[in-house]
Amino acid sequence: MNELAFAVVGTSTIADSMVDMIHQCSCARYRGSMSRDAARAASTTERLGGTTPYTSIEEVCRDAAVDAVYIASPNALHVDQALACIRAGKHVLVEKPLAPNERLACLVFDEAAAHGVVALEAMRSVHDPAYETLRAAVERIGRVRRASLRFGKYSSRYDEVLAGRQTNIFDARMASGSLMDIGVYCVAAMVHLFGAPEDISCTPVLIADAENEATGGVIDGAGTILARYPDKVVELSYSKISQDLLPCQIEGELGTVTYGGVSVPSRASVRLRGQAVRGAWTAEAQSTGDETEDLALAACDNNMCYELDNFCACVAGEMDAARYRDITLASLAIMDEARRQAGIVFPADR
Predict the structure, then answer these.
(1) Of 189-193, 246-250, 280-284, 335-339, which range is least confident?
(2) Is a pLDDT exceeding 90 seen at residue 146?
(3) Which residues face 144 on adjacent strands?
(4) Among 89, 124, 159, residue at a domain's last position
């Protein structure tokens, strides 16, 4: 596999984490970072061991030494930056969500196909082998009837909202909010495990209305999506304004799989049900002879390594990127409908 020279768009902590993985990957090499602030671009590139800082996406596109671009800018900028790189013949690995909506994601994928390059969403959970271990465990618990996938952590940026100040993480103009920033992990995991549902209903927790200038209009801080399948129901819970301490759970007729961390799976187990107890409403026990087994998940300090490895494999023609494209598009279609029900509108939707 040939080594890919990467330019990185953005100077956030997530961008630093990807550069760390690039340095550890035999198929990738870090060239430099882009920031509109020339001093920041230069200092970040030097700090991270690169050679060439950039102050615009045009500079990145003109650099013939760049093979691939990792885009970790605000959500609303992803599509324009990805299209510019694609049209310059660069492969693109775009932070989640790849686009504000399904329509624009289709445009990115279509342009990538037309220009013979790879476009991939950097959705870490979809590439983490831990989900293959979970999938194998799910096959042991019989027909799945219910699942609860959840992710909630309090964002310090919410303090800015409470103070009436603008922050990109809670701004409709930036195609952000709780669903797009953190709920997307739950949606992608559901699609990865079960495929797309027949329909969904979304109950959001809105933290701003259409008149709020600081947030660019209606925006969510938390929410729940109920996804209906022919034989099961899946609950997705997400929040950036509170902490969720419960594990994810997948319930089958023969047992239950639990695990922590929908984006970085950990502490997983499968409990196979024994004999059901009649009249269990009078006692704590619901069944006897249950068997619980801890699941061995691949240990990894930073599971962004898996999406990087798969991206390089797709560029080398060793892996088909279509399966990941389909998950991205199905996930965005779900989120488009959830936002429609919540009344959350981005400029890109118009």
Answers:
(1) 280-284
(2) yes
(3) 252
(4) 124
Please tell me the distance from the alpha carbon of residue 157 to that of residue 151, in angstroms, as a whole number. 17
Packing angle, helices 102-115 and 322-342, rounded to 10? 160
Residue 316 lies in a domain: no
User: Same structural domain for residues 228 and 270?
Assistant: yes
Same domain for 283 and 172, yes or no, is yes
Domain boundaries, position 345: 126-303+331-349
| Residues 332 and 102 sit within 8 Å (Cβ to Cβ) | yes
Residue 285 CA: distances (Å) to CA of 140, 288, 289, 292 = 22, 7, 10, 15
Instruction: Determine the residue type at 347.
Output: P
Task: Record the tokens describing residue 70, joined without a space.
Answer: 């990792």
Residues 232 and 96 in one domain: no
* Residues ≥6 apart with Cβ < 8 Å to 90: 7, 60, 61, 66, 67, 68, 69, 117
CATH number, position 25: 3.40.50.720
What does residue 202 show for φ and ψ, rounded to 5 degrees? -120, 130
- Residue 48's CB is within 10 A of a number of other CB atoms, namely 19
Q: In terms of pLDDT, which residue wins out, 295 or 277?
A: 295
Whole-angstrom CA distances from 90 to 80, 162, 309 are 14, 40, 17
Q: Are both 80 and 229 inside the same structural domain? A: no
